[in-house]
Predict the structure of Trehalose 6-phosphate phosphatase.
Amino acid sequence: MEEAYALFLDFDGTLVDIVERPDAVVVDPALPDILLRLEEGLGGALAIVSGRPVAFLDRQLQPHRFDMAGLHGLEQRIAGNLHLCDPEEHPELRRMIGRLQEVVAEKAGVLVEDKGCSVALHWRLAPQEKEFALATAHAAVEALGSEYRLQHGKSVAEILPSAAGKGKVIERFMHSAPYKGRRPIFVGDDLTDENGFRTVNALGGLSVRIGAGETIAKVRLRTPADLRHCLSRWASDGSLPFNVGD
């Protein structure tokens, strides 16, 4: 297997299909072992880079423990060294989450996903409430001030600390062993992944977008199932399933 690469993988919409409720995600039973074989073939240079908390990702990919960047980089595990975000360090955000839950309580289908150090408003179950959800999220982040920012995704708006971002955390990983000196590959599916694509492109790596939509990614695959097939083939025969180019 090629050991010159470092592989970064988003989770929702990339390794697994998008679902209507964030707690209803379904993981292909073969996926954890495929990722383990890839990790071994890449000398450990494989990480999941997601907006989900590390604890959630670990449950989905058990029994294995991969390198992780959870909550868009607020939580990290590299080579077994784990750093978690402490919600108590974000008291204003915690109070805002309580207010958001009150505001949306009577809006059926609008969900507040409390991630501890960030919060996401989902309206996939209630597309007619998109404008309400966006206005609510914008008002909340404006009230919180410059230490927080709003990040848009597919039927979701997430409020998170300004320091968080997939591009930033991929760059951080690339300065650490076993990622340092390798060519990065990042696979994602959403607006939240575009700054990761930008970072990987700038580093001379490969960006892969899952699904439709405008993107700066260099390669596109149709579905998470297509990606899982590519990863399985890579794990089995060691041949890179993407055209990296020169």
Summary: The first helix runs from residue 31 to 41. The chain has a mean pLDDT of 92. Residues 9 and 142 are 31 Å apart (CA to CA). The chain is about 30% helix and 20% strand.
